[in-house]
Amino acid sequence: MSKYDLIIRNADIATVGDRYRADIGVRDGRISAIAQGLEGQAVRELDAGGRLVTPGGVDGHCHFDQPTSDGSRFADDFFTGTRSAACGGTTTVLPFAAQQRGHSLQEAVDDYHRRAEGKAVIDYAFHLIVSDATRDVTQRELPALIEKGYTSFKIYMTYDDMKLDDRQVIEVLAAARKHGAMTMIHAENSDCIAWLTEQLLDAGLTAPRYHASSRPMAVEREATHRAIALAELVDTPILIVHVSGREAVEQIHWARGRGLPIHAETCPQYLFLSAEDLGIDDADPMHGARCICSPPPRDKANQPFIWNGLASGLFSIVSSDHAPFNMNGPDGKRVAGENASFDRIPNGIPGVETRLPLLMSEGVLAGRIDVHRFVELTATNPSRLYGLYPRKGTIAVGSDADLVIWDVFGEGEERTIENAMLHHAADYTPYEGMKLRAWPAVTVSRGRVVWKDGEFQAEPGSGAFLPCLRPRAPNAGNPLQKWI
Ligand code: DUC
Ligand code: ZN
Ligand code: ZN
Questions:
Q1: What is residue 1's predicted lDDT score, i.e. its pLDDT?
Q2: Fold of 58-371
Q3: Which of 2, 11, 67, 378 is deepest in the core (most CB within 10 A)?
Q4: DSSP string covering 408-465, please?
Q5: Is the CB of 186 under 6 A from ligand 1?
């Protein structure tokens, strides 16, 4: 008689390609059987009772305990950040080991492992942030780190302490092509932002809402187009992160029409927040700081374009870009003082726990996307793009037993989001007061029940580091460009 550590009975299983009713048997952290009427004994059984079961979420873009340069501090470390993720149905996170200028990538990786070890409660991999693209970095360090399982990196076209110029972007893309890695690009035009910021500050327009005026859509559209052109030149795939609105969507649509392998990510803030959330009057100037992130939330009229991009296949992934800073205290949003101008307020909002419930409720249950697309955007595609598939991001025999059992609420029974019910360490959520029709009832991470019926149940350090595979073969691309 087969013996399992865990059996989940009566699951309504949804993957990218399938939906069916079955039991799931788990042994040694992996799914070892899927069958109707699964025979055998288990140390523990859970009855899903016909409820929807999806793969645990893979959050391909979040920031925990990342060093900063302005005296601010991320509210979440690897314990509180991964706890929050687990309670929101996410079982794998990919935060960033960020290189400091003048330092090696390896130092960033070593430092980030120290920050994660003994704290993470779910599995994690690291993206790199390349902020100093020297010859040594692109030709020696990156290839060596790709070999060791750090196969994706983010580069910035803005932020003074991290941005690369076009030549440096090309050097990084060429390294990604040669060694089969994935480059994520933060696309905003730095000089435009600097000039606009100066004009706004000179005119005394300093409140948080002018953050949006300093980074209008044209700034993102231009940089998105440029990133696409540079990737085309080098003949390598890229992923444009946190796409915020219609004009950047149009650039990606145009690139896809040319057959270019341009992937795109969006985030809940561009579906549920708008420029109005940065403050519509100056009565409580700091209130809008809670929604300062970059790119900024756009006009409400932009939101349907992002939803359409999710439904149509334009977007490959939905990530949280969780980057939490406290509203209260000296090292969060107020790090530069009570009346600091918008350009001195840390960029970023919390969202690792609300990503899946928001998308399940307002995407799937509201009929904007189907459950298969939900799984693809939130788990399967991030796993594929970053070299974790099929270990992560699906429900299949041999895959890690990372699963979510969903509670779906009827009319009038919605769950209202309150910061007090979340498990991050941030002192607010930008989604306070929103009513949702679904929430994870149970999260299983590598066979361990880490969240059940309102209780978090995992030990710090129980999550494991995941080396990533190369998402594609080295030197893949047009053979005519082999000389690159
Ligand atoms: N923008 C980023 O690029 N990273 C973190 C948060 C943000 O708003
Ligand atoms: Zn970014
Ligand atoms: Zn980010």
A1: 65
A2: TIM Barrel (3.20.20)
A3: 378
A4: E--TT-PEEP-GGG--SS-S--TTTT-EESEEEEEEEETTEEEEETTEE---TT-S-B
A5: yes
